[in-house]
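Design job #97: recover the sequence.
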């Protein structure tokens, strides 16, 4: 078992009682009798959200977008990005995500066997596992990153 596998196995043990968040996949609407159906977000499981990583029972994923489910409502938008976010929130609601619950979409699995010094967000830097927590940020040792993120998830700050 590699150092990354060991760190992730230890993290899963520490997170056993911590809350998980839903992960989903956007499915474009199929046509039914020639009429296009609205897209929806379908459930693909649960994961612990650890910053730029989503940790499942058997995999580690890179995060994508996070959407809070809400019923579709007609409204005007000042920006196209707001319209897109509202469409995704409605797609989550159509997919069965309870209103107000968050769902992660656009995530992708990370291949732990293919880690090198340039992979992101997980990498091997000088043989040690590291994580790049932002596009502009540097790499941080994975063990320290997991400790901080697990502590935040298990003991959230007051009023968080």
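Job complete. Output follows.
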């Amino acid at each position: 078992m590699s150092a990354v596998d060991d760190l992730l196995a230890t993290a899963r043990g520490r997170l056993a009682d911590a809350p998980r968040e839903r992960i989903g996949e956007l499915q474009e609407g199929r046509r039914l009798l020639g009429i296009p159906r609205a897209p929806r977000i379908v459930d693909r499981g649960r994961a612990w959200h650890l910053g730029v990583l989503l940790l499942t029972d058997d995999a580690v994923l890179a995060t994508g977008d996070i959407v809070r489910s809400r019923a579709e409502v007609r409204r005007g938008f000042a920006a196209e990005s707001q319209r897109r976010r509202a469409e995704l929130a409605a797609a989550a609601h159509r997919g069965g995500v309870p209103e107000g619950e968050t769902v992660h979409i656009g995530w992708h699995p990370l291949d732990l066997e293919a880690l090198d010094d340039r992979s992101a967000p997980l990498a091997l830097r000088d043989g040690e596992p590291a994580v790049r927590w932002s596009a502009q940020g540097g790499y941080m040792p994975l063990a320290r990153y997991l400790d901080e993120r697990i502590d935040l998830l298990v003991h959230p700050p007051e009023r968080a």
